[in-house]
# Entry
Amino acid sequence: MKIRKLEPHLINQIAAGEVIERPASAVKELVENALDAKATTITVQLRDGGRSLIAVTDNGIGMGPEDLELAVERHATSKLPEADLFNIQTLGFRGEALPSIGSVSRLHLTSRLQNAKEAWLLKVEGGEKKPIMPTSHPQGTHIEVKDLFYATPARLKFLKTPTTELSHTVEMLNRLCMGHHAVGFKLLSDQRVVFDYKSCEGLQARLSQVMGTEFSQNALPLEMSRGDIHLRGFISLPTLNRSNATHQYLFVNGRPVKDKLLHGAVRAAYQDFLASDRYPLLALFVDLPYEEVDVNVHPAKTEVRFRDSGLIRGTIVSALKQTLGGASHKTSTTVSAQALRSLRPEPSYQPPLAAYRPTASQRVNYIPRTDYKPTEYLQEASHIQKTCHSGLEPGSQEILNQVQDDKPLRDDNFMETPPLGFAKAQLHGTYIIAQGAEGMIIVDQHAAHERLVYEKLKAEMGHVQRQPLLIPEVVELDQNALQRLKDVQQELKALGLIIEPFGEKAMLIREIPALLGEVDLQRLLRDLADEIEELGSPLSLKERLAEILATCACHNSVRAGRKLSIEEMNALLRQMEQTPHSGQCNHGRPTYVELKRADMEKLFGRR
# Structure
């Protein structure tokens, strides 16, 4: 067959397959156009999940008849004034969305410029453009997409149920809403209001609308600048987490994108606080010079490519770690809420309590103790487990020597109540009950001390002890994997892994971290090479060392069932207040629960 040019109608249908995958894709393109038109209110209406009708109305600057005619032509746009693909300051710019949508549906565009005498209506049905005509409409644009994919019936069978298609639209719109908090968004589905987000003065208020008040109440503000890169947003406390990463959002110069770089950076920053199958909630906004990022790598503009991805990743990891470090011992309010739900009695009949009268042998005359003496704090943690000894420098035998003052830690030694209060009792040899300034604190002594020991071990692991191999291991790799490992040789050396090139297609392993013990070195090196390609960092080696330290911390921390004196309990509380990240153990579980006095009063119907 001879080479021939495709018909414009067929070209548009092919483009539609790249840009318009489902109703949510069409909504995304239309809403982005409304945002670029400086709209302050945008309303989206769907019928049958968008299959029968998609209608987007905005109060933007609108279009005149000439612009309407050109808007449905391929590669026609008002958003590249300097024809520079590396200086894109708008959301839409390809000039393919409207002609693509018009080629597979019945497209009606109505628009009016500010101060114009009349509005104009243009119809495109199955790729055929109808004559433009005057009509009535307020300033702005109203676009209707009827019978999506009617001109390409084969596409219809790939659409899911209306409920599923609606969920994809909601997820997409939520991302756009987060990036434009000054704009009001409203979504209706089959005449039912799905959400109605009013314009907000600040980002946190919009995140509260989209991600819920639970997130906003337990979110840490984040802001960091490094050169021309500015990072801002909110991240959740580790104790507020989910079983998947669907609540992690990244925006680049205001554009919502999905990027594996974000997930790798978040995983690296939270590795000390969460189990591998738990994910924090966050929304991060990266602003950088437009020429430093390429947004023209995906037809739907959902992916970007950074000129220096390593710098972006390092900035994100540093910002996350710095923000988490500033949280100190803080834990999420969701923990207290769950505790209150557990404590709240069921609305069922409760028989009256029988009067208790102790016998003479059961009576105890209580005499308050006044002979408190300081004791050495938690001696069980004075030595590190044998496994850890081989991986730490000499001089790290003692874990904790917290109590150094001759004075007992009692209430009258403080001018005010410290954050975690004063210990009052111990329950079941496991839980410390403390009275705070505003309520009651319940501490899991094993989880709390596990975090303290873990942080101590990390601090003492500044110089990882290496184990030389009697016979160096040779690992064959392809050229790309070899180059990736060469680029991070110094980083691997800091972790105790000494490697060097061996010929043109292999890497030689000379020394490994002593903590690793017996390990499949061939698999380890190949996994590291794959991980560096995906995440930009040898995260698996860091996680493996962290897991070993976490195991050591668990075995060397005070056990549940160990009875503690008041001094020991207070010493543990004071050490928690001084130790970063002590609000959760190494697995993301809370180390303490705080019940406010007002919450307790609600439990008993006192307010």
